[in-house]
Write a structure and sequence with these properties.
The protein is of the alpha+beta class. The protein has four domains: about 210 residues, Nucleotidyltransferase, domain 5 (2-Layer Sandwich), CATH 3.30.420; about 170 residues, ATPase, nucleotide binding domain (Nucleotidyltransferase, domain 5, 2-Layer Sandwich); about 130 residues, Substrate Binding Domain Of DNAk, Chain A, domain 1 (Sandwich); about 100 residues, Substrate Binding Domain Of Dnak, Chain:A, Domain 2, CATH 1.20.1270.10. Helices cover about 35% and strands about 25% of the residues. The chain has a seven-stranded mixed sheet. The longest helix has about 30 residues. The protein is elongated.
Length: about 625
C-alpha cells in the first residue's frame, strides 16, 4: 500500500495572516488593538490620526447629517452640551422605561425604544454605537495599512444581559465589523495578563472605569481562563470621583453663588477641571481646580488628603463589592494570588492603597489599565481568526444573573443559576397543571428572587398540541442554551409526540447598570422573606391540587361505594379545614391542614387506586398486561 505524505503544519506567513482586531467599546473612551498586523505577535493599540490611543466615546451630528466622533465631538460640548452624545453604552438594549433623566442630551420614546434627538434627526443607541465602531474600524485600517477587517472581538461588561449583547452585535454589523465573539471585559484583561505572566491561580480583576465598577474572580490554569464569580457597583466610576470634587469645590469656593445657578455648561467645565486635578493628585500632593465659569474664574487648590476624605465612601463601596464576589465563590482574600487593575481610575493613590490593603497581594498594573481590555480582546481575535493554529485559550465566562421559568403561583424555577460557566446547556422537565391541558405558556425570566414579580421578564412563547392527558402526566422538556457570547435560546418539547417550540431571546430592552446592582442587592436583602414566600406558595399549590383531586374523586359515582358515611364526613371536614387555612395564608396552618387531609383520605385513595387497577385489567390475560 502506498503511503500518502501529509504536509507539516506551519504558522501562517505575514502574507497569509488575516487582519483581526479587538475593540474595547467603552462608556467614556473606546480603543482598537490588533496582533495581526505587527511583527512581534504582541497586541498593540492602534492610534487615531492625531496619534491618540484612546477615542472618546462621544458623537456629534450636524444638520447636514455629517457625524463627528471622538475628541472633536467633545470639543463642541462647551457650546452645545445637549447635542453631544456621550455614555451611549448605558442606553444599549434598554427601553425608555428603563432609564432615568440623568443625561445632558435629549431623547424620546418610540414604541418603548429610546431615540436620541439630534440636529440630523432621531438616532437609536445602536446607530450611535455603530458610528463609534465605524470610526474605530477606519482608525484600524488607516493605522495598519490593511484593506479590510476580517474579524473583531468586542468586549462588553460582565453584567450585560442578552438584549444589551445583541444590541452590541447589531451595532457592529451596521459598522461593517464581522464579530468573532463578544468577550466579557474582565476576561479580556485576564487574557492580556495571562499571556504576560503564564501564572496559574486565582486572580481578581478590579475594573474601575469612567462610568462603572466591575470585579471578577478568575481561575487561570493551563491556558484556561475560568470566571468563578462576578459583581460590582454599576452606578460607580471615575466620573463619580470627578463629580464629588466639583461639588465640594463649588461648596468651598462659590458660597455666594448657589449651585442651582450654575448652568449645564458651568458644571461641564467644573467637572472637567476636577478631572484634571484628580489626575494631577496621582503624583502630586496638591492640585488646583481652575474653571472658567459664566460668573467668572473659579480657582481652588485641593490637597490629596482632602480628595481622599471626599471620596473615601466611594472607594469603600468597591471593596464591599470585592468582599461579596469572594463570598459568592466561597474564597477568602488570602487565597487570591494577585489583583489585575483595569480602568484609568485605578491610578488613584487612594484606590490602589485600599486594594493593596484588603488583598495584601501583588497588584498587576504594568499593562496600561486603559488599554489592557483592548489588548486582551486583540489577542483573542488573533487566535479566533486562525493566525495562531497551534495556540489557543479556553475562555470560560459566566452568566451574571440566574435564568428560569415561571411556574404555578408566580414562582420562579431557576434552570441556569447565576455564575454558571458559559457556554452551557441545561434541561429540566415540567408538566401540565390541569386535566386535558393542550398548550403551555413558557415565560422566561431573569433574576435572583423567588417570585416572577420581583424578576425581569425576558420572553414568552407557547407550546401547543400537547396531548390532552390528566394533569401531571404530560412531560415537557425545556432546554436553555447560552452561547459563548452570552445569548440565550429556549426550547420546549413534549416528549411523547415530539412537538416542540422555541425562541431566541431578543427582547427590545435590557438591564440598566443600576438595575443589575439592585437585583443582586435585593436578592441578598430579601433572601429570607423570599424563601418564606416560596414555601407558602408551594404549600398553596400542593393544597389546591389535593383539593381538586379529592373533589373530583368524591363526585365520581363509581367511587361512592368505597366510602363509609363516617369516612366521607371526616374527609369533608378535612377539605373545609384546608380551604379555611388557605384563606388565612399562614404556612404552618396550611401544612397542618394539608397533612391532616392526606391522613384522613389515605385509605380512600388506596382503595380507589386498587379499584382503578382492577377495572383496567378486567378481562385481560397476563401476557396482554405485560405488553
Amino acid at each position: 500500500m502506498a503511503l500518502v505524505q501529509l504536509t507539516e503544519p506551519q504558522e501562517p506567513t505575514a502574507q497569509q495572516r488575516r487582519f483581526a482586531v479587538g475593540i474595547d467599546l467603552g462608556t467614556t473612551n473606546s480603543l482598537v488593538a490588533t496582533a495581526a498586523a505587527v511583527d512581534n505577535d504582541r497586541p498593540e493599540v492602534l492610534p487615531t490620526a492625531t496619534g491618540a490611543r484612546m477615542l472618546p466615546s462621544a458623537v456629534y451630528y450636524q444638520q447636514d447629517g455629517a457625524c463627528i466622533v471622538g475628541a472633536a465631538a467633545l470639543a463642541k460640548r462647551q457650546q452645545e452640551p445637549h447635542q453631544v452624545i456621550t455614555s451611549v453604552k448605558r442606553l444599549m438594549g434598554r427601553s425608555a422605561e428603563d432609564i432615568g433623566s440623568d443625561y445632558h442630551y435629549h431623547y424620546r420614546a418610540e414604541e418603548g425604544m429610546v431615540k436620541i434627538i439630534t440636529a440630523a434627526g432621531d438616532k437609536s443607541p445602536v446607530q450611535v454605537s455603530a458610528d463609534i465602531l465605524s470610526t474605530l474600524r477606519a482608525q484600524a485600517l488607516a493605522a495598519s495599512g490593511e484593506a479590510e477587517v476580517a474579524g473583531a472581538v468586542i468586549t462588553v461588561p460582565a453584567y450585560f444581559d442578552d438584549a444589551q449583547r445583541q444590541a452590541t452585535k447589531d451595532a457592529a454589523r451596521l459598522a461593517g465589523l464581522p464579530v468573532l465573539r463578544l468577550l466579557n471585559e474582565p476576561t479580556a484583561a485576564a487574557v492580556a495578563y495571562g499571556l504576560d505572566n503564564a501564572a496559574d491561580g486565582l486572580y481578581i480583576v478590579y475594573d474601575l472605569g469612567g462610568g462603572t465598577f466591575d470585579v471578577s474572580l478568575l481561575r487561570l490554569s493551563a491556558s484556561v481562563f475560568e470566571v468563578l464569580a462576578t459583581g460590582g457597583d454599576t452606578a460607580l466610576g471615575g466620573d463619580d470621583y470627578d463629580r464629588l470634587i466639583a461639588q465640594n469645590v463649588a461648596q468651598k469656593v462659590l458660597k455666594s453663588l448657589p449651585a442651582a445657578t450654575l448652568s449645564d455648561a458651568d458644571w461641564l467645565r467644573l467637572t472637567a477641571a476636577a478631572r484634571v486635578a484628580k489626575e494631577a493628585l496621582t503624583t502630586a500632593a496638591t492640585a488646583t481646580v481652575v474653571a472658567e465659569l459664566e460668573a467668572g474664574v473659579c480657582e481652588c487648590e485641593i490637597s490629596r488628603e482632602e480628595f481622599n476624605a471626599w471620596t473615601q465612601a466611594l472607594t469603600v463601596r468597591t471593596i464591599a463589592c470585592c468582599r461579596q464576589v469572594l463570598a459568592d465563590a466561597e474564597v477568602s482574600a488570602t487565597e487570591v494570588n494577585g489583583v489585575v487593575l483595569v480602568g484609568g481610575a485605578t491610578r488613584m493613590v487612594s484606590v490602589r492603597a485600599a486594594v493593596a490593603d484588603y488583598f495584601a497581594q501583588q497588584l498587576y498594573d504594568h499593562i496600561n489599565p486603559d488599554e489592557v481590555v483592548a489588548l486582551g480582546a486583540a489577542a483573542q481575535a488573533d487566535v479566533l481568526i486562525g493566525n495562531h493554529r497551534g495556540e489557543s485559550w479556553l475562555l470560560l465566562d459566566i452568566t451574571p444573573l440566574s435564568l428560569g421559568l415561571e411556574t404555578m403561583g408566580g414562582l420562579v424555577e431557576k434552570v441556569i443559576y447565576r455564575n454558571t460557566t458559559i457556554p452551557t446547556e441545561k434541561h429540566q422537565e415540567f408538566t401540565t397543571h390541569r386535566d386535558g391541558q393542550t398548550a403551555m405558556r413558557i415565560h422566561v425570566v431573569q433574576g435572583e428572587r423567588e417570585r416572577v414579580a420581583d424578576c425581569r421578564s425576558l420572553a414568552t412563547f407557547t407550546l401547543s398540541d400537547i396531548p390532552p392527558l390528566a394533569a401531571g402526566l404530560a412531560r415537557i422538556r425545556v432546554g436553555f442554551q447560552v452561547d459563548a457570547d452570552g445569548l440565550l435560546s429556549v426550547t420546549a418539547t413534549e416528549k411523547t409526540t415530539g412537538v416542540s417550540a422555541g425562541i431566541q431571546v431578543k427582547p427590545s430592552y435590557g438591564l440598566s447598570e443600576e438595575e443589575f446592582a439592585n437585583m443582586l442587592q435585593a436578592a441578598y436583602t430579601h433572601a429570607h422573606d423570599d424563601l418564606q414566600a416560596r414555601r407558602l406558595q408551594e404549600a398553596v399549590n400542593e393544597s389546591e391540587e389535593l383539593l381538586q383531586i379529592l373533589d373530583k374523586a368524591l363526585a365520581d359515582a363509581d367511587s361512592a361505594h368505597l366510602l363509609s358515611a363516617a369516612e366521607r364526613a371526616r374527609i369533608a371536614a378535612g377539605l373545609a379545614r384546608l380551604r379555611e387555612a388557605l384563606t388565612q395564608a399562614q404556612l404552618a396552618e396550611i401544612n397542618a391542614a394539608k397533612e391532616h387531609l392526606q391522613q384522613v383520605s389515605a385509605e380512600f385513595a388506596g382503595r380507589r387506586m386498587n379499584a382503578d387497577i382492577q377495572r383496567a385489567i378486567a378481562g385481560k390475560k397476563i401476557d396482554d398486561i405485560g405488553q
